[in-house]
């Protein structure tokens, strides 16, 4: 049986290529049945590889590329002028059958554009969506779309719901996932035209649709999949990151205010460390771009080696569990249901 192969953008992220290489080598050591192929500029990639002695890993290789894509570059301009960069080269490797999946902590817009243009979309899917699990008290809630598309139509949200439901069942182990629409209220007639029309589509689908959910109840565990357009999703993501960082800083400041709170902080340090570990992005590794005809996992721009290693673990799992095949089956079911309804 051939090894599963992951094409990795070694130049993407704030700490590339060192942390990308370090995390990739850690993953390769733990998963000898998976081959990791690092794509990046020759000089910095060689330097990073040399510092970690990759010769010990028989399942690691490198492909040297041209100048890499910056985090702030326009997707259109980057794909036009930097065809030899690590992102387009790694995406091309999947297209050619040289790799089974693509992983990057780089420019999200370029990753979305490159995979959509090169791989196209899965049958029945109109727009790809970024799916990210948020921690709750008793598990996770999968949110989609976290920023792949800032302008959506009701049909797109239906596709997100199907993809999110499949992901929650296959990757998070949730049977018959509860799907909700993010909204400003729970009343049926409340919301934008986009949300109201999407509700009609979801209500008529085979999905376990439970209605609307408000932002303040997102993490209560009342839904397993929460659907929204990419603009709202990205604002939600950035706000959640900012609030989390603020709370952690406030706790540290409060602990240092007096000897008593300092001692209390020492006593509760293991509990705080556990909570921080549960909510930190490095433990999730990355968010999958669902809907493209291939496997693409996009990691946080600030990913360290631990986040990269965890992200590659998710990537391999998505390939093995054939998530895309299940998405296609879900969309076919939607299509058949509509045909039957129209025929009746």
Oligomer: single chain
- Largest sheet data: 11 strands, mixed
Radius of gyration: 21 Å
What global shape is seen? globular
The helix-strand sequence is: EHEHEHHEHEEHEHEEHHEEHH
- What's the number of extended β-strand segments? 11
Q: How is the largest sheet built, in terms of strand order?
A: 3-2-1-4-11-10-5-6-9-7-8
Please describe what this structure looks like.
The protein is 48% helix and 17% strand. The chain contains eleven helices and eleven strands. It has an eleven-stranded mixed sheet with strand order 3-2-1-4-11-10-5-6-9-7-8, sandwiched between helices. Helix 1 crosses helix 10 and helix 6 (154-170) crosses helix 7. The longest helix has 26 residues, at 230-255.
Give the tags:
single chain; 344 residues; alpha/beta; Isopropylmalate Dehydrogenase; 2 domains; 11 helices
